[in-house]
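Q: Entry one of two.
A:
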Amino acid sequence: MSKQYQFKLVLLGESAVGKSSLVLRFVKDQFDDYRESTIGAAFLTQTVTLDDQSTVKFEIWDTAGQERYKSLAPMYYRNANCAVVVYDITQTASLEKARTWIRELQRQADPSIVIALCGNKTDLEARRQVSQEEAKKYAEEEGLMWAETSAKSGEGVQEIFTAIAKKLPLTAPPSARPGAASRGPGARTGVDLSKQQGAQGQQEPCNC
């Protein structure tokens, strides 16, 4: 039987960089031009199948980018296995904000967290302000994964989440107890679901 793993993933970044659109494209392969800003955080799940047929289930916390919700962020990235920090390639300031989030993760998140820096909105290439060279150089210096995406066209979206799934250590951490599926934003994940009888299907996506 192919192995199944479960990891907690958090999305961070300034408001309006396209975090929710990125998740919607990944989870439902949809795009909404008039998507409202996230309030607090939204929770969704999606599964990626790797080359060896093992599967990685992401429990995704899509956090709000507005400044008034910033104090809530540690509740969502605490004990996260991976984080996608999103910036808008047409807004230089959004990359600076992404750098701030990355510094915070490096200081306060789990030391083993996998961080991906993601430049969104490549469909707006004509309005680009952040060069690939600048972002890639920064990612290399900080030891981050890096990619560019377009939530609107779907370009690069599946690829970045699959790359993260491949980067994660497919072993349950010592703190993960059998059956310890996430029931809240601070719960620890990274559980080998294939060792749990009937573990699949216990949680339904909350499209809040």
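Q: Entry two of two.
A:
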Amino acid sequence: MTTNQRMELLAVLQALVSHQGDLNIRSDSTYVVNCFRQGWWKKWEANGFRTSKGDPVANTDLWRPLLDQALHTGRQVIFEWVKGHSTDPHNNRVDVLAQEAARQF
């Protein structure tokens, strides 16, 4: 059992680990994309991975390695938001694959 947010993070992390070159990450996850495009990670790192309210940042076990891969490996990683369940063929294909995999469990 897991959450949608954890799976979104894990998917990006696996893409970054499996491909060592520059990447353009296209995701329908505002959770993932906004972290990078709006710089949420900067405050997290500065606050010891605590929110402005002092609570631990959710999914830190995935965020830490993801941030390391995306920000500290010397490659260019661009994050682009795409609307889910829309006209993006790659996003639609990933959605089909995820649903098929979920049905196996």
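A: Comment on entry two: The longest strand covers residues 23-27. The helical segments are 4-18, 30-37, 40-46, 60-71, 89-103.
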